């Protein structure tokens, strides 16, 4: 497994994760969290979820719902494409 994060103009919209030719939006969102110093705890509180649940979603083990994505995007002013696979 190889982690490669590409960031263009300090925007995580271009961050990608490559594992044997696959890319995932979870790493893009994770990169955005790091770059913007937003904790998974803050996201958990925003969404009314446990930190463990957010950890699984941020790391691509589970998916965010559309409502959760919308709430994050509306709150932080980010584009939904950081969640796309």
Task: Describe this entry's structure for a reader.
This protein is mostly helical and 85 residues long. The chain has a single domain (12-78), classed as lambda repressor-like DNA-binding domains (434 Repressor (Amino-terminal Domain)), CATH 1.10.260.40. The protein is 45% helix and 0% strand. It contains 4 helices and no strands.
* SS field, number of helical segments: 4
As residue ranges, the low-confidence spans are 1-23
Query: Which CATH architecture is right?
Result: Orthogonal Bundle
State the domain count: 1
CATH class placement: Mainly Alpha
Backbone shape: globular
Rounded to the nearest angstrom, the distance between the terminal CA atoms is 17 Å
Beta-strand percentage range: under 5%
Q: Output the structural class.
A: mainly alpha
CATH fold label: 434 Repressor (Amino-terminal Domain)
Oligomer: single chain
Main β-sheet description: none
In round numbers, the mean pLDDT is: 76
């Amino acid at each position: 497994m190889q982690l490669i994060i590409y960031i263009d103009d300090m925007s995580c919209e271009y961050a990608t994760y490559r594992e044997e030719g696959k890319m995932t939006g979870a790493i893009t969102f994770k990169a955005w969290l790091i770059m913007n110093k937003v904790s998974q705890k803050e996201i958990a509180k925003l969404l009314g979820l446990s930190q463990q649940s957010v950890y699984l979603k941020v790391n691509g083990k589970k998916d965010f719902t559309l409502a959760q994505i919308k709430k994050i995007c509306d709150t932080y002013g980010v584009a939904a494409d950081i969640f796309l696979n």
